[in-house]
Amino acid sequence: MIFGYQRVSTKDQEFNLQTDALKKYGCEKIFSDVASGAKASRPSLDNLISQLRAGDVIVVYKLDRLGRSLKHLIELIDSMTEKKIGLVSLNDPVDTTSAQGRLITNIFASIAEFERELIAERTKAGLDAARARGRKGGRPEGLSKEAENKAAAAEALYKDGKLSITDICDQLSIARSTLYKYLRVRGVDIGKSEKQVQETS
Q1: pTM > 0.85: yes or no
Q2: Could you say which of 9, 164, 173, 193 is catalytic?
Q3: What CA–CA distance (Å, rounded) separates 9 from 47?
Q4: Is 193 a residue of the active site?
Q5: pLDDT per position as a tens digit, 21-56
Q6: Domain chopping of the chain, boundaries
Q7: What is the CATH number of domain 2-97?
């Protein structure tokens, strides 16, 4: 069975463009979510995934409608591939039902791994710089180990100034409010860095 999945970030946005394209492709049933790119909760997507069986295909208008981040997207694709479920993106060179599409997916996986290594490298650089300024890199009070790691990564990426706020949130799979919370906990001068990030976004 061919399923469609569509997502908009806010209630003010419309599904029309995505819906028309999915119906034209031949989707028999379409699932819809209203959620920001970094938001973890996507009830309709979870419902869709629970109904999938071997031989089914998910169709999306663009890949960014499906995954919260590149890491999340690759995890979804890997899971679907194992269950013999296909994925087609109408506006990206992705069709896991074909050999060429699977090759592109493998390239995405390699990029995701590169990004993870890059984040780790920038995080280490950020911690080293913080220590050099006299601040210790211990766990801030009230943060779990996972949150501590994300806070350190957020600080490094934020100060690096090469990614926009939205990109950083997508990379770390966190909400914008959580990002600012982590930065405050880490003692980051948000106003100064904010200008730098906006100039590169």
Answers
A1: no
A2: 9
A3: 18
A4: no
A5: 999 999 999 999 988 766 667 899 999 999 999 999
A6: 2-97, 116-200
A7: 3.40.50.1390
